[in-house]
Design a protein that fits this description.
Length: 96
């Protein structure tokens, strides 16, 4: 198993993720090669909570242009983690 900080890249803070926090669901950008078991382990170790479920999705990078040059943003892997009732991640408390 890798270290938790290698798996969880950063939290996702958006309007949709704030609404999902009311349902005990938290969103993170994770390493592209991380699987659901590793993501569950990382969240439980870093935040001392119980994870009930993990949903993942790979988001393809967008094509961007700068004048006549074209490039591509990197692909991201997003994980939505569902926690047990009563558990919260303290980092997100002041954001909602």
């Amino acid at each position: 198993m890798r270290e938790p900080y290698e798996i969880l890249v950063k939290p996702i803070v958006s309007e949709k993720s704030m609404v999902q926090m009311g349902e005990n669901k938290y969103s993170f950008v994770v390493a592209k090669d991380a699987n659901k078991i590793e993501i569950k382990y990382a969240v439980e170790k870093m935040f001392d909570v119980t994870v009930v479920g993990v949903n993942t999705r790979t988001i393809p990078g967008k094509i961007k242009r700068q004048g006549r040059y074209e490039g591509k943003r990197p692909d991201l892997k997003k994980a939505i983690v569902t926690l047990k009732d009563g558990d919260q991640i303290k980092v997100f408390e002041g954001l909602s």
